[in-house]
TrEMBL record:
<feature type="binding site">
    <location>
        <position position="293"/>
    </location>
    <ligand>
        <name>substrate</name>
    </ligand>
</feature>
<dbReference type="InterPro" id="IPR001360">
    <property type="entry name" value="Glyco_hydro_1"/>
</dbReference>
<dbReference type="InterPro" id="IPR017853">
    <property type="entry name" value="GH"/>
</dbReference>
<feature type="active site" description="Proton donor">
    <location>
        <position position="166"/>
    </location>
</feature>
<dbReference type="GO" id="GO:0008422">
    <property type="term" value="F:beta-glucosidase activity"/>
</dbReference>
<dbReference type="InterPro" id="IPR018120">
    <property type="entry name" value="Glyco_hydro_1_AS"/>
</dbReference>
<dbReference type="GO" id="GO:0005829">
    <property type="term" value="C:cytosol"/>
</dbReference>
<feature type="binding site">
    <location>
        <position position="398"/>
    </location>
    <ligand>
        <name>substrate</name>
    </ligand>
</feature>
<dbReference type="InterPro" id="IPR017736">
    <property type="entry name" value="Glyco_hydro_1_beta-glucosidase"/>
</dbReference>
<dbReference type="GO" id="GO:0030245">
    <property type="term" value="P:cellulose catabolic process"/>
</dbReference>
<feature type="binding site">
    <location>
        <position position="121"/>
    </location>
    <ligand>
        <name>substrate</name>
    </ligand>
</feature>
<feature type="binding site">
    <location>
        <position position="165"/>
    </location>
    <ligand>
        <name>substrate</name>
    </ligand>
</feature>
<keyword id="KW-0624">Polysaccharide degradation</keyword>
<protein>
    <recommendedName>
        <fullName>Beta-glucosidase</fullName>
        <ecNumber>3.2.1.21</ecNumber>
    </recommendedName>
</protein>
<keyword id="KW-0119">Carbohydrate metabolism</keyword>
<feature type="binding site">
    <location>
        <begin position="405"/>
        <end position="406"/>
    </location>
    <ligand>
        <name>substrate</name>
    </ligand>
</feature>
<keyword id="KW-0326">Glycosidase</keyword>
Length: 451
């Protein structure tokens, strides 16, 4: 069986985020986040699950770093809870919170695992939300000040930084659909939040250029949008959704303009933005982080403003337990699209993975053949894009651990490692062993080896 080889210095990693794994969100003087508030509102989260304990990573990080070393990871992407470090979001520093991330970073480095730090994975300090949060025009400066603090504390040891995770999700699922914190449903707020997030990214990059010695980028969720039929209405709906999801943040960042479709979609809710802001936003980002899970199959839906389009679930196709279609070709297409549209930027796949209903452990292992298959086919898809000239530097599986899957709580499981939410016991899944082999061989076999 031939193995598809990856580039020599390719970085193999896994990813998590603070609120999803750490637990103890108020420990050691931390300030509450909008997520802490949100999960404690009844009915927001499936089964009213919370991140109060999550994977107890705050206390078990050493054990988890040992697991990472056991898998042979070369890198680990984690996020910092802003409110642990700055309980009020700005002002006084909480040294105990900062120390947690210092100890985690040092534990990784001792095992030869490169840290990739995400500064913002959705857990805005509640104190800042009370001042308007991302709607406040000062929010980019708050973020840059927080970022500078972390650069000063950790840049000597951290080679890769991500400013924001999925600003589209923050803007649209947090402020338009209300499925995620802070749970607003307001067309007028959404483009303003998006704009402040872009400025926040730009301000943090500018701060990094003044003192940072390594590389900084942005992580975006990308999903090709395909029409559900050949009808012109469905085709137009898919094109609208492509501008809305895939180009909203990358066009201004890399081309200096918002997609023109957005203004017509939002109509009176689109505020129009100063040229000076757009100049500032078009900043030299060192890499783009790609979070890829699936594609969208789109149908025109006149009664669904602002997009007048809905995503349908293709019942004939294989899907994960999130009901997302398994569509590896979309990863190849997405990576090639980035190369063609934006001039071959350096890329990392900062998230890729799947939720399945895993069985209980048997003989000390959890059998998850569907996840193995998902990883294998998506790694092959990434490899196909590499052979066509994209500049892919690394791959981070989502996720290291079964964790708190936001609005879905603990019911949806993305981990390479199973975590029993009661006993906190960690058990490797077959996919973890599969991934260890991929890392060890720096390559992937296109189909299961036989004999
Ligand atoms: C990621 O976001 C998160 O970064 C991570 O924290 C999370 O645990 C992980 O995925 C798994 O969910 O067609 O309008 O319904 C998820 C990115 C963006 C993927 C929205 C699904 C559907 C858009 N998601 N997308 S829509």
């Amino acid at each position: 069986m031939t193995t598809l080889p990856f580039p020599n210095d390719f970085l193999w990693g896994a990813a998590t985020s603070a609120y999803q794994i750490e637990g103890h969100p108020l420990a050691d003087g931390a300030g509450p986040s909008i997520w802490h508030r949100f999960v404690h509102q009844p009915g927001r989260i499936a089964h009213d699950d919370t991140g109060d304990l999550a994977c107890d990573h705050y206390h078990r990080f050493a054990e988890d770093v040992a697991l990472m070393a056991d898998l042979g990871l070369g890198a680990y992407r984690f996020s910092i809870a802003w409110g642990r470090v700055l309980p009020e979001g700005r002002g006084a520093v909480n040294i105990k919170g900062l120390d947690f991330y210092r100890r985690l970073t040092d534990a990784l480095l001792e095992r030869g695992i490169q840290p990739m730090i995400t500064l913002y994975h959705w857990d805005l300090p509640a104190a800042l939300h009370d001042r308007g949060g991302w709607l406040n025009p000062d929010s980019p400066r708050w973020f840059a000040d927080y970022a500078r603090l972390l650069f000063d504390a950790l840049d000597d040891r951290v080679p890769l930084w991500v400013t924001l995770n999925e600003p589209w999700v923050v803007s649209v699922l947090g402020y338009l659909e209300g499925e995620l914190a802070p749970g607003h449903q307001d067309w007028f707020e959404t483009p303003r939040v998006a704009h402040h997030l872009l400025l926040a990214h730009a301000e943090a990059v500018a701060a990094y250029r003044a003192s940072g010695r390594h590389r900084i980028g942005l992580a975006v969720n990308l999903e090709p949008q395909h029409p559900a039929s050949s009808s012109p209405d469905d085709q137009a709906a898919a094109a609208r959704r492509d501008a809305f999801i895939n180009r909203w943040f990358l066009d201004p960042l890399l081309l200096g303009v918002y997609p023109s479709e957005l203004e017509s979609l939002f109509g009176p809710a689109w505020p129009g933005f100063a040229d000076a802001d757009l100049k500032r936003i078009q900043c030299a980002t060192d890499f783009i982080g790609v979070n890829y899970y699936s594609r969208g199959l789109v149908r025109a839906a006149p009664n669904h403003p602002p997009l007048n389009a809905v995503r349908i679930s293709p019942t004939y196709a294989p899907r994960t337990s999130m009901d997302w279609e398994i569509y590896p070709q979309g990863l190849t297409d997405t990576l090639l699209w980035l190369k063609d549209r934006y001039g071959n930027p350096p890329l990392y796949i900062t998230e890729n993975g799947a939720a399945f209903d895993d069985p209980s452990p048997c003989n000390g292992e959890v059998s998850d053949p569907e996840r193995v298959d998902y990883l294998r086919t998506h790694l092959c898809a990434a490899h196909a894009a590499i052979t066509q000239g994209i500049d892919l530097r690394g791959y981070f599986a989502w996720s290291l651990l079964d964790n708190f899957e936001w609005a879905q709580g603990y019911a949806k499981r993305f981990g390479l490692v199973q975590v029993d939410p009661l006993s906190q016991k960690r058990t490797l899944k077959t996919s973890a062993r599969f991934y260890r082999e991929v890392i060890g061989g720096n390559g992937v076999a296109p189909s299961p080896a036989t004999g």
